[in-house]
Amino acid sequence: MAKQINILLVDDSEIILRKMKELLSDVTFIQTIETALNAEVAMEKIRLMLPELVLLDINMPHKNGIELLQDIKQEFPRIKVIMVSSHSAEFYKEMCKDLGAEYFVDKTMEFEKIPALIEAVLSECTLK
Hints:
Blueprint lengths: L4 E6 L3 H11 L5 E7 L2 H11 L3 E4 L8 H11 L4 E6 L4 H9 L4 E4 L7 H14 L1
Parallel strand pairs: 1-2, 1-3, 3-4, 4-5
């Protein structure tokens, strides 16, 4: 993959953000990895950096990840979103898919799949 991309990680847990950043640190096509602990900071960073991809948790204070997903897709429909959450019930997966999320990852069981999913999402984008 030749194009370098920018990614925003959004989760209210600094531990999870650190783990995701470590997991993605060796992915060669990622140029920048930014983080946000809440939806307000996430939207500010999205407007500034225009990332190609956002990895987004559901459970956050003030505004949850589902509401933020709606905001992202409304304002920036070309940004790809992968939901990364421990709320892995089919209800949440379907809701996020219906709102435009490209994938849903159960962070309690599928965390290590994130780099491969990012590559798959971006490959699909370049094929369209």
